[in-house]
Amino acid sequence: MAKLDKIDTRVIYTLLFIVIAVPLIMPLGLPIPPTADTKAAFRTIDALPAGSRVIFACGVKPVTAPELGPLSLAVLNQVIAKKLKIVFLPSMPEAPRFIEEYAGICQQQGYKEGVDFVVLPFMAGEESHYAAIGSNLKSLYKEQKSSTLWDSITDIKSFALFIDISGGDQQRWAMAHIGGPRGVPIVAGVNASIHPNIQQYFTSGQLAGIIGGLNGAAQYEIMNKIPGKAAAGMDAQALGHLLVILLVVLGNIGHVLSKRGELKDGALKGGSM
Amino acid sequence: MVFVRKSLPGFVSTVTALIILLSRFFAAPSLKSASQRLLEWQVVVAAFALGLGAVNLIWVHTANIRFKRGRAWRLSYVTLAFLIVPTVVGIALTPKHPVYTWLFDSFYDPLGGSIGALLAFWICSACYRTFRIRNVQSVLLLASAIVVMIGRVGIGQTMWPFSTRLSEWIMNVPNSAVMRALGMVTALGMVAVGLRVVLGLERRALMAGEEQ
Question: Which value does ipTM take for this structure?
Fold first, then answer.
């Protein structure tokens, strides 16, 4: 029993692989209850009238794509269903490739580029990029091709909502330079690891909603009634969490038992002297 | 020359920071216009910084190959190939060309996703090895981690329905309180650093590699 805190890493990796792979092949159909922050994000977008302009700031990159990819698609499906006008804004150098895919989805759903959606080019600068967007969007993108949608926009206040999906500090920059000073509501889509860091902004009202990680994306898909990759992956994530908890408990049991064993050995050695 | 290397960068930083800072407090059109122009210039400077990063990468890896530095110096060939080939293809054929998108979709996307997927295994192993109950604080940490891990997935609803509400409370109350405190402290630190830049006292970045 004392060896419970010395399980071989290969055994742990094998167990995790099995626990994740089996539900992907044989889904368990576990419930996916929506949390308050995801419900708030959904309701915020749902409340927008058709034709409202939204910025879809996309910071998806290959490392975060497994989480943020399904999340972006879930939000995009709702935005398209609500017939909102979209301005895609890449906030990471890799994002334009993913935005191409989302633009393709828009076109498949009958959206016309220039009329219903516009794709802006990537610009470096991180926070100063966001500050320039908040300050004067049209001046920053003065080379952008003229179109019906783009010409109808005067500045950042022309947008009813700023949706920011990324795995870094983009939501903080958006709150500092767009949400706070310009009064544009912000909905955030983030990795599960970033979620605890920005939860405080939801409770304070600075973020209108947060969709956190694969769990949030799955909740969103269920609320949208369009289950996708996120909902399919939740069974695997649930069992993975259980395995981690079990391993931590076993590790602590083994640790306590081995400490007791050491104390006993020490007492015996001391007694025999 | 000393003025260009040491004094000019500090002077530019101070003036730039002051213009942007003052534009936040005063509604003068000239200040707003100057601030906007500086932010747009910063976007251009940041783009050059990306290019500088690529130059540095080439410098380091060509040196690795020339001097056969480290046991894995041959991997520098791979790094340089993956840097140069997409760059040349992107410039020659545009990033929307099928060859470029094939390179991105076949190499970068799956490799990046694989790194993200490997994190799950590393975190699982790390949690098992490091989460040990040693004192009251570690008990609280472990208990809240378990509650949040169970409560945020569907199995929590099935096994222990209260875990969902409890995990939301942990995220909304103690977690938010601590993150707010951390955020305020970080912001105060950033204000202090910003003031040092504005006053020309932050010379470390300007004198990198030299004795102060």
Answer: 0.82
pTM: 0.87
* Residue B121 at interface with chain A, using a CB cutoff of 8 Å: yes
Q: Which residue of A lies nearest to B165 if distances are taken between CA atoms?
A: A35
DSSP letters along chain B, please? Answer: -HIIIIIHHHHHHHHHHHHHHHHHH---HHHHHHHHHHHHHHHHHHHHHHHHHHHHHHHHHHHHHHHT-STTTTHHHHHHHHHHHHHHHHHHH-TTSHHHHHHIIIIIHHHHHHHHHHHHHHHHHHHHHH----SHHHHHHHHHHHHHHHHTSHHHHHH-THHHHHHHHHIIIIIHHHHHHHHHHHHHHHHHHHHHHHTT---TTTTTTS--
Chain A contact set for B142 (CB, 8 A): 248, 252
User: Which pLDDT does position A185 carry in this prediction?
Assistant: 97
User: Which of A15, A61, A200 has the highest number of chain B CBs within 10 A, making it the mutation to test binding with B?
Assistant: A200
Chain B residue at shortest CA distance from A137:
B36
What's the pLDDT band for A85 if we cut at 50, 70, 90? Answer: very high
Whether residue B117 and residue A66 make contact (CB cut-off 8 A), yes or no, is: yes
